[in-house]
Amino acid sequence: MKNFISLNDTAGSPDELIDLALRFKQDPFSSRTGHRKTLGLLFLNPSLRTRLSTQKAGHNLGMQVMVMNMDSEGWKLEMEDGSVMDGASQEHIKDAIRVICEYVDVIGVRTFPGLKSREEDYGEKIMSSIVKHANKPVLSLESATRHPLQSLADLVTIREMGITRPKVVLSWAPHPRALPQAVPNSFLEWVKATNAEVTVTCPKGYELSDEFMQGTHLVHNQEEAFDGADVIYAKNWSSYQHYGERLPVQEDWTITKAKMGLTNNGKFMHCLPVRRNVIATDEVLDNHSVIYQQAGNRVFAAQAVLEKLLQS
Ligand code: CP
Questions:
Q1: How far, in Å, from the CA of 271 to the mean position of ligand 1?
Q2: Dihedral of the alpha carbons of 212, 46, 286, 291, in degrees to the nearest 10
Q3: Closest Cα to residue 134, out of 172, 96, 88, 168?
Q4: Are residues 91 and 164 in the same domain?
Q5: Of 67, 164, 193, 299, which is most buried with the most CB atoms under 10 A?
């Protein structure tokens, strides 16, 4: 595997990575592929789980890990090729990435979308530029449109439920701010590559891009969608059609114990961080969820991906 940016980097099938992640969960120190190798993790945006789980994954493989919060600790980066840098930007992304590649064997990057221009975000302007300039494998720690390490951990968690053909529902849920579409996009991209039956439920106007919605059932009535579900995967996202906007929603989309009662004793999933009693009630999060199992599986998902990147 040359880079890890989307499901395409796995030749379209997540099974091998899921199996490997589960093997690492059984025996985290079974590989020393990372001995005398260095992992560089660059954060242009905040993180708790991705930062810590990917560091731990690297350590489990014997890697040295360097972490830099580029937004607060680095020079202000220029993203435009050919620009005359006489403004606020102090270092070109090309130079920063080429220099970092002198120090590391794998480079991980987190960069969120601006949510201003759909073309710019869905063109993955920043991640594409990093891949273009890096001469080492690039690991996405979440990009403008996808969060593949999260999705792999989610699939590991669903596999652990042991359901032959799980009914999985991705549900929009409320949030006070406009959020990216990366987690729900990516979740759909990955879960559709399994044998799950996939439904998306969201208020009208919150449908995701066709690229991700294709092959799913769309149900605008949340309670109807929850009927008989094995997994409720909740997430807020801003509108794709009215790009980056928070559209008014009349109904209450918060996930409650009563709504979970419509499912087939279903498990609640969320990537975290979660706004308690906004996205889902305390009762759901504390008694019907696998959120900590999901977060724990982030380590083994990252370890499986690092193993494959190092082998290449
Ligand atoms: N789920 C997730 O990526 O969490 P962080 O943003 O804290 O890394």
A1: 7
A2: 50
A3: 96
A4: no
A5: 299
What DSSP assignment string belongs to 4-16? Answer: BSSGGGGTT--HH
141 and 48 housed in the same domain: yes
For the chain, how many structural domains are there in total? Answer: 2
In a domain, 52, yes or no: yes
For residue 1, is it within any domain? no
- Ligand 1 center to residue 170 CA distance, Å? 18
Q: Residue 245 sits in which domain range?
A: 149-295
Mutate to test the pocket of ligand 1, among 48, 143, 147, 270 (most ligand atoms within 8 A of CB): 48
For residue 155, the domain's CATH number is 3.40.50.1370
